[in-house]
């Protein structure tokens, strides 16, 4: 059945101005608000609740894989921060620095943490002395500050919420396995919770995290054709451990430096959800991450019996264990339809006098607007199944877009045409020479998003230099 | 049966040096660690897990009473912070200030949040315009920074973890009710989860929070005779709302300023748990907040059948839904006994060859060291009941101490004797004149902890000035 949704006139359409559409949703769906601290945002209840669902899923997965939550200081002494050169170079330009404490000038200035590798290393140096102390598998939920010049809600901000895992291992192999394992958990989050298909792979040398030997990432493709780096995991080798004096007595009795990883996802994922799934009526939330999964709306609520029937229906729906909400405020049903469409609630259940007469409720899917009339006694089972259906439909739609916008580029001109006009990934065979990567960026503004794990070579030479091609790389413009 | 626990020699005894005993536990039970950022600590996995249990309980209670979690910036522009004079005066001396961002001097310096009233007000001014928008019931889990000169783990630190609720209401009555309701929830946390009896009451004018019209608090009594303020709730009236331009159109069509509350508890509660319940063998955790509630320890683990029996027992115990852990490491049983005593695990289940022969396990209570031999088929029910028993015993013991250390003072000399020698609360009739409160502090170093809700007058005059007494007050030395 066709969608009869009332068009919400208050947001810009995606085709008209994608960036403005995005910002409109952030505000109108009440996900965030700006503050007088430039670049710093407020995570409003509805936005924060999405983050809490992401936290719930990840906390379970992290704990099931042996990780423990901890909390480390919000500031890092500058002297400590400066101990690892490459790392400092990567973050120094965008740090926020405290110079005054208790009305006195600080001798050792304090950097508001942009990431916590050095703090974890300092602590690990104290608590690790034997191979028996390994692995150490810690995670922290917190905010970090990076002094960005241009900011956009959830995508790039002076402060964002994230989790940062920091682990220490006896062997290189174990640490590398950890970095890959955590990437798989992020990928599962995308597939099973956010309904977002990620492209998984390794970062090029140029795109690696400051100080890491290896960076892996999950990349999501946005409907404007740009890629969004959505999570990264890093293998550090033992460089940080050496710099910070983290060492342990091995099984052979000799002292060694442990091998380190770190990994994180952030509230940027909320930006990915908005862009991948949203439409011109507002947010479209994947059901497993939606703060409200089903909203019950009485129609012609002033007619006798409607409110009681809506209450009974909502109460009964609670038995599904889903997150149900009932809106019995005195606003019109039409107003409510628009409102919950804007907020992206996956399922709307309407009940009015005619529904009551027929012993049914009207069920509307947010993702495609289709309606169905469902017998009340079958409603709970229907809704429970519908959640799965909607999740799959949303994932499949995003996957279709991803596949349709991953295009082989056999020349730099083709690559440029793909990223400029068609949008999405230009898949290219690459010689692994950074000069070609630089040249591509210069000519097309596209960057190497990742060297996907799934390597299916399709050309012999790098189209940039004509030398032997070694790797399939996904190039795209990126957020 | 008598306690046969092996004395852990590595911590100072309580009677020898209470402060050192406290610090020893913080370190040896692996609750926290120091960092090179002076006054900032690391919440290690075991300490943080206790905080997570507190969060789980409070989040449920907060959500059931209609509150929503949000996240506001970690920094406050100095210009915004300076908008409410009394508040500024209260916090300015202990702020940490950022002056450099992205390598440039900041025009408007940023204060690392010591508390977030002003940020909430700024946001509320934007999202409240009608009585229909009220109440706004927001809570935030975060850390705050206060530049303290002398710090002690969990009790007073440059940074601590807390929750801060900030609400806006249509009427004074509703806001006052909210402040009292949240105090009740904190009190429930003490009684039902932490096994700590709190004294509830109102703060005197002198002891109120900066900018509040009314401050309520829960106070816990420590075994060294000092009180620990463990949580506060505040009624602000509409002073902040006026200063920040928060207003709404009321039911009468007129503009008005909403009435505000804020309320918070912090990781200071971990300090309370340590002091109230701990003993010379280490931490003693109340069962509902213990990260591990039952530890299973194989005895003579190298004997055939012991490890498999311990595993089966532990697996079976999982069915209780309690947090169970099995230690099958190669350390000696005696070492493990000491270790889990230090960590305060409420119940230890030992299983050795003789137990297996008799179809029993040995159950040891951490709180009093008593042992029992329990048939394996009855073990789960026994343990489930034991959790309740232990909680009640721990609460009752703390309550007994509290009652025994609450003493009527009929003169300043008596008050001084109580707080100096006996320890605990000196309960005194007070004229409500701040001059007397100041004098008492000067003479005895005791402060008015609270004016308890439960008022049972026992004298006619204030022993300090001889004027008519109006209120029963609890005086004590405090952390």
What can you see in these coordinates?
The structure is a homodimer of 479-residue chains. With 479 residues, chain A is of the alpha+beta class. Chain A folds into 3 domains: 18-277, Bira Bifunctional Protein, Domain 2 (BirA Bifunctional Protein, domain 2); 292-389, Anticodon-binding domain (Rossmann fold); 406-476, C-terminal domain of ProRS (Translation Initiation Factor IF3, 2-Layer Sandwich). Chain A is 35% helix and 27% strand. In chain A, the strands form 5 sheets. Chain A has an 11-stranded mixed beta sheet with strand order 3-7-8-14-11-10-9-22-23-21-20, sandwiched between helices. In chain A, strands 16-15-17-18-19 form a 5-stranded mixed beta sheet, sandwiched between helices. In chain A, a hairpin with a 2-residue loop joins strand 5 and strand 6 (104-112). In chain A, helix 2 crosses helix 6. Chain A is globular, with a radius of gyration of 25 Å. Chain A starts with 17 loop residues before the first helix and ends with a strand. The model of chain A is unreliable at 1-7 (pLDDT under 50). Chains A and B meet through strand 2, helix 2, strand 3, strand 4 and strand 5 of A and strand 2, helix 2, strand 3, strand 4 and strand 5 of B.
């Amino acid at each position: 059945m066709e969608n009869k949704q009332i068009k919400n006139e208050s947001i810009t359409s995606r085709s008209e101005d994608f960036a403005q559409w995005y910002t409109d949703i952030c505000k109108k769906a009440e996900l965030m608000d700006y503050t007088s601290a430039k670049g710093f945002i407020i995570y409003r209840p509805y936005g924060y609740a999405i983050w809490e669902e992401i936290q719930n899923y990840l906390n379970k997965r992290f704990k099931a894989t042996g990780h423990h939550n901890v909390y480390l200081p919000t500031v890092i002494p500058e002297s400590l921060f400066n101990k690892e050169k490459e790392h400092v170079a990567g973050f120094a330009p965008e740090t926020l620095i405290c110079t005054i404490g208790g009305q006195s000038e600080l001798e050792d200035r304090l950097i508001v943490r942009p990431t916590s590798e050095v703090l974890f290393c300092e602590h690990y140096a104290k608590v690790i002395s034997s191979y028996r102390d390994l692995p150490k598998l810690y995670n922290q939920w917190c905010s970090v500050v990076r002094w960005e010049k241009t900011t956009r809600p959830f995508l790039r901000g002076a402060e964002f919420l994230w989790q940062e895992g920091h682990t220490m291992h006896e062997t290189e192999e174990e640490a590398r396995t950890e970095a890959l394992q955590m990437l798989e958990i992020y990928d599962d989050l995308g597939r099973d919770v956010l309904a977002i298909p990620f492209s998984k792979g390794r970062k090029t040398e140029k795109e690696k995290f400051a100080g890491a030997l290896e960076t892996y990432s999950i990349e999501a493709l946005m409907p404007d054709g740009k890629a969004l780096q959505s999570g990264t995991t890093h293998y550090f080798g033992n460089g940080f451990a050496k710099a910070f004096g983290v060492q342990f007595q091995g099984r052979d009795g000799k002292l060694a430096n442990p091998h380190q990883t770190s990994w994180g996802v952030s509230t940027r994922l909320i930006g990915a959800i908005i862009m991948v799934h949203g439409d011109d009526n507002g947010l479209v939330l994947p059901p497993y991450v939606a703060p409200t999964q089903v909203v019950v709306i009485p129609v012609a609520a002033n007619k006798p019996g409607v409110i009681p029937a809506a209450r009974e229906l909502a109460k009964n729906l609670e038995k599904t264990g889903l997150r149900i909400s009932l809106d019995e405020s005195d606003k019109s049903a039409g107003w409510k339809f628009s409102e919950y469409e804007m907020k992206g609630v996956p399922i709307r259940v309407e009940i009015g006098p005619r529904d009551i007469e027929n012993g049914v409720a009207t069920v509307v899917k947010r993702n495609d607007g289709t309606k169905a009339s469902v017998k009340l006694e079958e409603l709970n089972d229907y809704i429970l199944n519908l959640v799965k259906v909607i999740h799959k439909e949303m994932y499949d739609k995003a996957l279709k877009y991803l596949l349709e916008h991953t295009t082989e580029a056999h020349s730099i001109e083709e690559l440029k045409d793909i990223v400029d006009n068609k949008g999405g990934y230009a898949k290219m065979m690459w010689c692994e020479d950074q000069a070609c990567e630089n040249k591509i960026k210069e000519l097309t503004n596209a960057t190497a998003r990742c060297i996907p794990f799934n390597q299916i070579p399709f050309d012999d030479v790098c189209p940039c230099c004509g030398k032997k091609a070694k790797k399939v790389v996904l190039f795209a413009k990126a957020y």
